[in-house]
Amino acid sequence: MLLGGAGPAWPREGRRKAPPNPVPAAPVEDPRDAAAGRHYEAGQKLHNDGLFQEAIAEFQEAYRIKPHPNALYNLGQAYERLLKYGEAVDWFERYLREGGEAAPYRVVVENRLRVLRSLPARIHVECLPKATASLIDPDGVVERADTPTEFRVKAGRYTLRVTRDGYVPQERRLGAEIGQPYFYQFTLEQHRELVTIRPNPAGARIFLDQKLVTTGSYADRLPVGKHQLLVEYGRHEPYEGEFTLRPGRKIEYDIVLKAPPPQGRLEFVIGTGTYGGAVLPLVLYTAGVLSQDILKDKNRRLVLIPMIIGGGGLGALTGFFATPSGIREANSALILGATTWGGMEGLSLGLLADRRNTRLASGLAVGGSAGGMAAGLLLIRPLNLTPGQAAIINSGGIWGSGLGLGLGYALRGDRRDLDLTLIIGLNIGLITSGVIVNHFDLSRTRMLLIDVGTVAGAATGTLVGYAASRADPFRSNTGKANLARGGLVGGAVGLTTAIVLTRKFDKRGKGTVARDSLISLEHNSFKLGVPFAQVAPLPSPGGGTDVQVTLKLASGTF
Questions:
Q1: Which of 100, 185, 224, 427 is most buried (CB neighbours < 10 A)?
Q2: DSSP for residue 120
Q3: pLDDT tens profile 152-180
Q4: What is the pTM of this model?
């Protein structure tokens, strides 16, 4: 009898053939083992019907009741049909051990084992975003490939690692069985590091990678890699840059936005209005429309009022519409200053040529002012002055004019040399200031302080000259000359003193005041230093005590 049903007899030695599928039960001599036969037959039928998992249960039950190598062989075949090659190998190996050298299907099973053992496990790896997958065996051998990829390896334990620059790596340990497919999918997260941005002004807008992230300070963790940064605030010059964030390195930015150039549109409109109000009557006078006697007649003088108002309005409107997007403070000061000094040059030349021909002087004054304005417009772009440099040039014109006027009276006490000294002094002042701006850049505020000091010195010198003069300064040429000489000396002393006292004014940090400063600037406000006095005991060599008095009236740290 055969376990589980009838079948061919065991094949004789040397004539073994491939067993049927599945193998029929081997003949048994124990008729009491009918239960094992029933399970074996049931397993055969289920196997032939393709129900391999159910067949496995029947073969295992048959083997439990009556162990026999044929049941082991059929279990190996059933597991192979289920693609469970590891279990199939286990059962086939067990068949060889228990069947021994006499196992009827030994050659078949050995060949089958050789094929099964050579089947690789297939490890398929995908990753978002694409990365490099590394498969490491227990011996440290590494296989690498870019995802998506599939590794074909023998059965065993492995470590699967997925890496990409700028991303947090992921790792898994896995066991691969013979011929089995495996599918792994990863999603990598980017490395993030802390980025801190502190803008000044504090209300600036911060854009990262072309997206507005905040207004004011920013602190957050960003993915490593390159990022674009834009910081902007009103009319300040924006900051644009790019930075690369690397793993393990945080980045801190303290960004100070460059303040926009001071705007001088208001002063430009006022200046062009004043220019228009002064030029229109002069043009009409030069053209002969207005007579020289207009100032002597009260009723005729009233005609000048609408002319001045009309010319001023026309000039202001011209200045307003000529600067729709504003004008830099330095450019406004340069144009207005050049217009003024050009007009004074023309007037001085006209008076120097013929003092009695007032129409000529008037015409040259208008022409000189127009030429000065044109020169200022042409020079603003190539010179590109700062507000302080423009102030230096205008101050040079003021000092030169004052020098010319002072010299005109200081020489003889009358106006005979005034025309010549005025034009000489004006050009000396302009040339000197032009040389200064090539080497220095002072702030506009400091220039204002220097101008105030110069005027104060000139006024003080004039008062001293008046007090010291024995001659009547209003009726005597000698008295007038003394006043002028005192004013020149006082102006020179005031100019020098103001320059010395403000020598550190532009070097001071914002919001700080030196304790020994006489004049200082704090938060755009001027501060006047307080005189300092101290009385302290001082031991004398003789054992007594002296008194030391320290008095500090002023000190120049500005």
A1: 224
A2: P
A3: 988 889 999 999 988 889 999 998 888 88
A4: 0.53
